[in-house]
Amino acid sequence: MEKQMTIPTGMATAKSVAEMTRRMGAVMTSCMEPLRKYYSDVLGKEISWTQMRALFEAQTAMLACILPADYSLALRSLFGVWLVMALKKCRRLL
Predict the structure, then answer these.
(1) pLDDT of 10 over the 70 cut
(2) CA dist 65 → 50, 89, 90 (Å)
(3) Cα-flanking dihedrals φ and ψ of residue 3, to 5°?
(4) 3-state secondary structure 11-74
(5) 56: number of Cβ within 10 Å
(6) pLDDT higher than threshold 80 for residue 53
(7) CA quadruple 57, 54, 22, 14: dihedral positive or negative?
(8) Minimal CA–CA distance to 53: which of 81, 80, 90, 3?
(9) What is the pLDDT of residue 4?
(10) How confident is the model at residue 8 (pLDDT cuts 50, 70, 90)?
(11) Distance between alpha carbon 10 and the CA centroid of its chain, in Å?
């Protein structure tokens, strides 16, 4: 008796990847919406998704600069450049 195994390929795999990507986007949107509303409340005006992402990036860059105490000077410098660029982006968008 011969054992045979069928491996799905082609469109079925592409559809499942597209569906998974769509679901992940929906989950991320639902998780980030409260953060966008919080930023809107703090700033006193409605902010867009682009502005919210810029603020989130600036906060992440600041944490990357401050928290890791044992990183090399070169890596800290890169984080500093990232922070400056993120702050300029926030200033331009807000």
Answers:
(1) no
(2) 23, 17, 17
(3) -95, 130
(4) HHHHHHHHHHHHHHHHHHHHHHHHHHHHHHHHHCCCCCHHHHHHHHHHHHHHHHHHCCCCCCHH
(5) 16
(6) yes
(7) negative
(8) 90
(9) 74
(10) low
(11) 30
